[in-house]
Amino acid sequence: MILKNSKITKISILFLFFIAKISSTAYSENIKNTYFAGGCFWCMEEVFEKVNGVLDVVSGYSGGKKSNPTYEEVTKGKTGHIEVVKVTYNPSIVSYKDLLNIFWINIDPYDGYGQFCDKGNSYVSAIFYQNDNEKDLIQDSLNNLRQVNIKKIKTKYIKFEEFYLAEEYHQDYYKKNPFRYNVYKINCGRDARLQEVWKLK
């Protein structure tokens, strides 16, 4: 009887492990990443982390050629990289199209030299697409913006190649250093310019 129960227990454990494995695989297949550059990555982290369906946002660099660049190298403009956020999200809760709309209203698409007070190649706005579907959705969103405003949009869309995680002190900076972050954000004129561009209420 003890042996029989032992066999049943082993079978039950294996069955539960199998179910957990299937559930984990299904969950991971439903989770996606996307990459946005909207100037200072501290600010973009704050924007996207507040979105329902977004699971994680981290700061980093993309668009350049150098592997594992440092913040100092990127800001000096020698690597070709841009400050980028990697957004991990559940598309059954928030769609890629929704994330695009959120991205647009949190940048100045008419500035080709950077964003707000931050100027230089590392601060330009860009969207990194990973497949033709994302590229088509970006182009659709651009066409919609052009109907609203005839000014030439400077935001680029770039084929994604690699993302390099930024230094730890940059991650969740707005949470770790709220006073310094808010002083920077106000002095940079980000909210004021967004209000001007998008007529936000």
Note down, in words, how this protein is organized.
With 201 residues, this protein is of the alpha+beta class. It has 2 domains: 1-30; 31-198, 2-Layer Sandwich (Peptide Methionine Sulfoxide Reductase, Chain A). Helix content is 46%, strand content 20%. The protein has helices at 2-29, 41-49, 71-75, 96-104, 132-148, 173-176, 178-188, 190-198, and strands at 32-38, 54-62, 82-89, 114-115, 118-119, 125-129, 156-159, 163-165. β6, α5 (132-148) and β7 form a beta-alpha-beta unit. α4 (96-104) crosses α5. It is globular and about 75 Å long.
Number of helices: 8
User: Can you say what the CATH homologous superfamily of the largest domain is?
Assistant: Peptide methionine sulphoxide reductase MsrA
What is the spatial order of strands in the main beta sheet?
Answer: 7-6-1-3-2-8
Low-confidence stretches: 16-27
Name the beta content range.
15-25%
CATH architecture of the largest domain: 2-Layer Sandwich
* Helical content class: 40-55%
The CATH topology of the largest domain corresponds to Peptide Methionine Sulfoxide Reductase, Chain A
- Whole-number radius of gyration? 21 Å
CATH class annotation of the largest domain: Alpha Beta
User: What are the secondary-structure elements, in order, as H or E?
Assistant: HEHEHEHEEEHEEHHH
Number of domains as seen in the coordinates: 2
